[in-house]
Amino acid sequence: MATVFLNGKLLRDDDPAASVSLSDAGFMHGVGLFETMTARRTDSGVRVVRVDEHVGRLVASAKELGLASSLRAGPLAEAIEHTAQAHLEDADYDAARLRLTVTGGDLNLVRREAERVGVGVQTPTVAIVAQRATVYPAELYERGGLMTVADAKANPLEPTAGHKTLNYWWRLRELQAALGKGGTEGLVFTITNHVCGGCVSNVFAVKGGTVMTPVARGEEAAVAGQGGAMPSPVLPGVTRAAVLEIAAGMGTPVSKQWLAISDLLDADEVFCTNASFGVLAMTRIEGREIGDGQVGPVSTQLRQKLAELDNA
Questions:
Q1: Per-domain boundaries in the chain
Q2: What local confidence, expressed as pLDDT, does residue 116 receive?
Q3: Could you tell me which residues are beta bridge partners of residue 154?
Q4: What is the pLDDT of residue 273?
Q5: CATH entry 3.40.1000.70 includes domain 3-132
Q6: Residue whose C-alpha is closest to residue 235's, from 30, 54, 12
Q7: pLDDT tens, residue by residue, 145-161
Q8: The pLDDT of residue 110
Q9: Which regions of the chain are under pLDDT 50?
Q10: What is the reported pLDDT for 253?
């Protein structure tokens, strides 16, 4: 059973009120943003991991893309924490997956309100769904995963690229194709054949002790000397940022740069990150083993330190 927070009301998922209009912009046109988070019940209470970072990214994207200017990070974070608390208080498990979705709202209501008070009115739909978190098998972390190369490519000139929008169909299709080949993740490239990341994750390479990851949206100017400030379609992942901070704290050199397939194939280690599985090593790309084909020490240490932070 899931717990739903919809436009200010906390509901059960089997409540008829836990639904959106057929004229909602998210349903009609895929206009919206989302964030996926993990909540954990500890001795000190329920905590949503990096809730401020997730909410901050969504609010910034909503303003940049013109989805909604009325969103406030503080109240959104409070609503997420409230939903997580309500869901886990009687659950027989200690970890929940939360998804925050914000759409352009009910188009009929937006239209009527615009006619009443003038154009530019924004009434977004805000939904939070809490349910049991996915548990990944320990053996997957021990042996590492397989990445297969995706057919679709990310376009850095597409205005919503690098934002976590509802336009996820193409990514899920590529992930499904990877799973159908026995893979764990799909490896996505940009139209310029630079590494973008996984279908649902950020990607890292480790070479000679340096942790490298593709340049993300908003970081282009810092690496302009490597070929100009070309826009990046890479999502600035919240877990990605945490891993980079952990690596730097360990004294491990980190580098954000444009990466080619050769940078991954010749790496000592490759791993992916997202809010659900944390740090997951990839020991093969298609038929090519990465390094010695085993989960490497850097990705292992980063996974452990991230888990320690998330479970604190």
A1: 3-132, 138-311
A2: 56
A3: 190
A4: 98
A5: no
A6: 54
A7: 999 999 999 999 999 99
A8: 58
A9: none
A10: 97
Determine the Cα–Cα distance for residues 227 and 27; give it in Å rounded to an integer: 39
Both tokens assigned to 154 = 């990310």
**Tokens at 76, concatenated:** 């959104």
Bridge-partner residues for 278, per DSSP? Answer: 274
Which of the four CATH numbers 3.10.690.10, 1.10.3720.10, 3.30.710.10, 3.20.10.10 does domain 138-311 have?
A: 3.20.10.10
Pairing status of strand 125-132 against strand 3-6: antiparallel
Q: What is the pLDDT of residues 198-232, one digit of tens each?
A: 999 999 999 999 999 999 999 998 876 655 568 99
Residue with the two structure tokens 């990096």: 50
**Helices 238-249 and 297-311 sit at what angle, rounded to 10 degrees?**
110
Amino acid at 218: G
Number of residues in the chain: 312
For 161-203, what is the HEC assignment? Answer: CCCCECCCHHHHHHHHHHHHCCCCEEEEEECCCCEEEECCCEE
